[in-house]
Amino acid sequence: MDMQENKQMFVRNSFENMKTENVDFPRGGSASEYSVKNGKERNHQDDLLFNRQNNRSSDEEIEKPVKKKRKLKPSKLAKDSASNFDINDNKLKNEKSSVELLSIHHLNVGSYFLGRIVKINSMNLVVSLPCQMVGYVSINEISRPLSKIIANIADSEEDDEDEKENDENILPELSSLFKIGQWVRCKVSRIETPDDKKATSKHWRVHLTLVPDEVNSDIISTDLSKGMVISASVESVEDHGYILSIGLDGIDGFLHNEDAKNYIKSYNNGNELTVGQVITVSVIKILDNKRTVKVTANPEIVAKTKISDAEVHNICSLLPGNLVTSVVSDICSNGIRVKIMGLLDGVIDLFHANPKIMTNLQEFHDNFKVGKKIHGRIIYVSFTTEAKRIRLSLLPHVVELKQHCADIDNELSIDEAPVGKIIENVTVKKVDGRKGVLLEIENLNINGYVKFKSGSDPNHSNELTPGSTHRARVIGFAAFDNLLLLSTKKSVLEQKYFRFDDVNIGDVTQCKIVNIIESGILVSLSDNITALAPNIHLSDTSLTHPSQKFKLGTTHKCRVLNKDPSNNYIYVTFRPILINSDLPIFKSFNDVKVGIVTHGIIYGIIGQGCNVYFFCGMKAFVPINQCGIEGIKDTKHHFHIGQIVKCKITKIVNDKELIMGSFQINDMTNSDLSEINCGDMKKGKILQIKNDEIILSLIPSQIRAHLPISHFTDHITPSHLSRIKEQLRIDEVLSNLMVIAKNEQKGFVNVTKKPLLIEAKKNGKLPENLDEIEEGSFVCGYVRSVTDYAVFVGFLGGFSARATRERLADHYIASPVGIFHVNQSVIGLITRIDKETSRCEISLKPSVVSNNKYLPFINKGNFIKSYFEELLHTNKKSLDQEETKVMLGERVKCVLKKRLSSEQDEDDLDMVNDDHGGWKVVVIPNNENSHEKKIKGFISEEQANTNNDIKEGDQIEGIILDMDIKGKNVDLGIRPELFPSFEKNGKRKNKNSTGDGVSRKELKKLLNEKTSIDAIIEQVKEDYIIVSLPKYSNTIAFAASKTFNNRSPPFIKYQFGQTIKVQITHVPRHRKKSNNNSEDNSSNHHKHTLQYRVLVSILTDRDDKLIISGIKTIDDFSEGQVIKGTISGVENYGIFIKINNSVVSGLCHKSKISDDFVNELSDLFKIGDKVKAKILNIDKEKQNVGFVMRKSYFNSDDDQMDTDEDGIEQEDSEDDQMEIDEDKSRSINLQWETDSDEQDSDNDESEENITQSQNEQNDDAPLSISSPWKWKESDDDDSNNNQTQEETPPSSSDHELENDQKKKHKKKKSKQPEIEDKTGDLMKQKPEVSADYERLLLGSPNSSYLWIQYMSHLLNLSEFDKAREIGERALKTINYKEEQEKMNIWIALMNLENNYGSDETMAGVLKRALQACNQKKIYMTLVEVYEKSNKFELAEQTYHTITKKFSQSSKVWYKMGLFYIQRGKIEAFRNLLQKSLKSLPKRKHIKTITKFARMEFKYGEAERGRTIFEGMMNNYPKRLDLWSIYIDMEIKAGVDDIVRRLFRRVVNLKFSTRQMRFLFKKWLKFEMEHGNDEQIEEVKEKAKTIAESMN
Q1: Is 40:72 a contact under the CB 8 Å cutoff?
Q2: More confident residue, 43 or 916
Q3: 612, 591: one domain
Q4: Total tally of structural domains belonging to the chain
Q5: Residue-wise pLDDT tens digits, 88-110
Q6: Domain of residue 701, CATH code
Q7: How many CA atoms are closer than 13 Å to the CA of 1128, on its beta-carbon side?
Q8: Residue ranges making up the domain that contains 1002
Q9: Nearest Cα to 114, choosing from 379, 337, 346, 355?
Q10: Phi first, then psi: what are they for 1536, rounded to 5°?
Q11: Would the pLDDT of 992 be above 50?
Q12: How far apart, in Å, are the Cα atoms of 383 and each of 41, 315, 317, 1280, 1316?
């Protein structure tokens, strides 16, 4: 009953409302249906059209309407248009005969629309509305959950707390929530007019909201019924579906997963719905609780469901999107009127009545009949005025709600008519009053529309008559109405750029200056295309005030540089070079090809190269080595941002779109490595020869290749490599190159010419990856790098294996550095493969790789044979023109010219062995012609010592042992045993011989039978050994002194006169020697004898055994023998000891180390510690040795053992087994003992005082823990001790200097016996336990030596805390007058804390030491402690502290400078000199500059040191001490000509007789060592001249 009453009341109220509306408005209501501001119908429609050609903003704009007067007479256009109507239209021309089109001026806030999304931006949506209008939906007007997320993000940005962002606060992309073409219900939230203060545009703009609470706000809850279409947002995601918000209080929607499946699959890319997403759903059921509505999102169901008239009780519930049934009530000339639910009036305008254009009233009557029921979808509703306005659409795509995920242009198949395209023929079908005309487009199933105001010229509007054809341009697309918006304006048709796609990269065009902004200048390319010219592209020079050159409104020539389709940005350039460039440009990545040269602009500079920007936004990187400047170190000094350059494309990585370029445009090399593989054999043309590598261009690919000099050969001695390099020439073609690695990033390959690697690749022994090897396989490779603990062996393609120290030799080696060399060819055995980490281990032990059966291509003798073959090849051209006058093994006469007392002259012979003596001779060939040049010869000291009766000028006989590559210098042997095979006339007894006295047939027989024979070493050279075969007429033969895996110097292992076993590996072919009287003797003289050498291989117990330091083997030792050795390994079960001067090492078990219990061996022993032990057992079969170190195994006789027994010199203390050094301290000791470079070179530089410091250290404190400290400092740190220890030039106070030196010498001598006595007492007592030390300290409580030995004993037992206590006790016990003794204790404590303490304990000891001792001495000692323990950062910090505290001390500046330059910090070192001179007093400047100059000579650049000395000499020409230092530095530099020039300069200065005598003595000594007879005579003559002038 109540339901029936409500229905009757609804009908009555609705009828009364309609009646009231009919009274207020004229009959029909169409003409005055909407409220118009001026009371009259406007002449032109100013709807907002969707215009896709706007390139500068995502927002579409609405033109501002033109205001009209209230009373307006019909225009000529209206009259002309009306005249074209047919007769029926003229009869029906009244207010009832037309339906007013909807425009933006009719809208009110609160109106409802059905819209279609046409564009999705990052922060808003663009929605197409009916009648060509457009609306905008901001991101915060989509749904409440989405707005909440935005608010949370905004709040989190304001907070300073760095909290991680929750997943709930992640803002989803709008493109993931909506799709192009999606239908949505929206509500007008704001209408923006140009008069608004907050207006963002000069046009009208409609703002919309999609929030369900707003768009569904007028729905009455009781009207919810099946089939009603509503808008909903996802509130939460549940297990079986989604909870939706529909905007009605107390009512939620539920979308089951099944009902959402089709929507997700078809329109959401298969992704689940997310919270905040808005969808259009249809009601399928209202649950009994009236609080939940079950809905479906299935697009097919939503499109087909109709709202039932019986279910709707209120007009407000009729909202856009619902499909309703209506009845035609009236037919007009441009639309129809309908009745909805029998009472409500609705209209269907011309655009939505039929897809086909109906040109007149008759056609409307033909398609629609009054009283006919039609189904239409509500597209607009306005309840904000008294008149309730409802609009419907009958268009199929609206009724069916067709949605598409693709672009609208594609979905409507209008690719042939995109925006901006000109259509040649369009036909006017209907003129719509004074608004515009509808047109039919040829060959398209879509209509066009031209607005009179914006789409046609005012003077030609009357030409748009029905049936007329025109030329039009597409200016937009109304997606909702499915209309193309056209224009027939002449200016639009002639416009060059109408849309973004019309602009092409590289176009040169005119532009108008629009605005000047911070980032550049905005220009207009056309009426609706705007572009930006960045600041870097305004001019070739930097513009401070761009507005002075570019005036607003002026026109300039520009070129399109790039386009950004994602943001519709266009960039142009004003740079003349780019505008006028004829070089090819890039329009896409596909246009980039290797070899193309184009213009680019540098936009970034880094240390390793330049970043270059091209057209189309292509970017390339140009490495520093491709910048076209030789020796460039920093690109910032040669290039600048904005610089235009020509760049050549050298490499492209397609998958990453990476481009590499080069400024060397004339370089024809190629960087595309796709066609080349590791292991390929190539030829290459030399482009550049550098110090250590060759740059080539491979033929024919022109790929750049790098060939290190050491990869030319398997022999890597510097002399051999230098000979190879000297023969190379630019443009020479090298063959037999194998690619071993590719550098894709830099676009070049690495190649090698090593014969071993090439043969290994041919035989499958040069792997490229793990799959090509297996454990136990033999491979060949080269050393890639050497560290202190391992050698890394390289193969093809960057594949490498590691050989740890224990796998490098058959005996222990402390470090492979210096034993193995980078790029050394090696042979190895794969011992372990780990495929998980892609790593493998390799063994290089000679005993492991000596078996050649696994590498058959490596034959004995090949190593030495390849050496001589390379020697011949590199000198092939010169050898073809050379004639050798002597032969190897030939007996010749020679004249002794000069006895050498030291190193031989550089011009004497091509020899590298260290002969400190011998004879220079001149060889007299047997076929000597008087006019021919004599041959220089050399007799080694060992050979010379076999004949003591020879003297200068004697003519003796000798045997040719060796000769240089040109036969101009020879080595002679004069050992008497060499001559018996010769007759008296100098000829061999065996006529049919190889030239060396034995028949070739006999040698061939020995070669084939592989017979081992005796040989005597005649001479040892760096790369080979010369031997004679005594049983075979003393034939001269040559053997390799090194092997692939052993490049140790041969001078220790092989000695002159040593008899060894050899095997012949090569016998030269037969050689004929022409008769001396032959006419063609000049042309057929001795061919060069390099290829006629007999080659042998040396046989040993173990081939290629690695030589450490001696030759003693296990056979030289016996059980019970006491030895001294070095710890080579520390394990939990014991320590490994290597006997000094031998190749023997063995194990001392943990139980055999001490009579007391030992817990952790690693705390007591470190690798490198020197110890004494007794041989416990020897197993010669297994080559095992066992040692014992327990004190109970030693007796008094062992303590007095002869040092010669095992070849070890006596140590400072025989208690070596008790000396336990820290790892860092011991490593420093070892460095000082083995690295003679620092000590020997510094012996001549007293200001460094390294040797003196060590001597003082050994005198005062031989304890191992104190080894890195300097125990005694000179009383005056800044005393002038500049002179070298070699010679001290006489000064004006020579006698005083001599007296001072004598006093110091006496003072030093007086201190020596005291320390020696102390050490002697300690050695006799041999303290072994703490009680022994306590007993000794009772007698010598002030001896820091005993206290520190006590501390060392405790450290031996790992009693660190007790060691500290002893140190503290020593400080309290030692008398306060013994400052130096206390100083020693403080230093011991600092060293202890440095190695065993923490930073806090170290700081505490340092603080107390500074309070108790000389601060400068403490700091200097501390910095040495840090340096020797490799704590270089702490050392540098300490140096900074010292230089601040003691800036007046020259020593601290010098020490810091030495620290910098020894570690390669050259710039810091040089800056430090200038800094020091600002702090030091002037009297110390000369001394400081001298020290820094000497350091430059030694560690830096000799030329820079030379420059510093020259500056000082110009200012102080009378300082003979400085001249002496300068000359000494040049002598060490080794440039003899510079030294002679210095001597000539200085002797021309005025000095005293004594000083002159010193200079000439020094000069004469130099010439005797480095000069010849003429130069010696020059010195003597000069001395006589100076002496006569002074007298």
Answers
A1: yes
A2: 916
A3: yes
A4: 7
A5: 344 334 445 678 888 887 788 88
A6: 2.40.50.140
A7: 21
A8: 883-1099
A9: 379
A10: -65, -35
A11: no
A12: 22, 9, 11, 106, 118
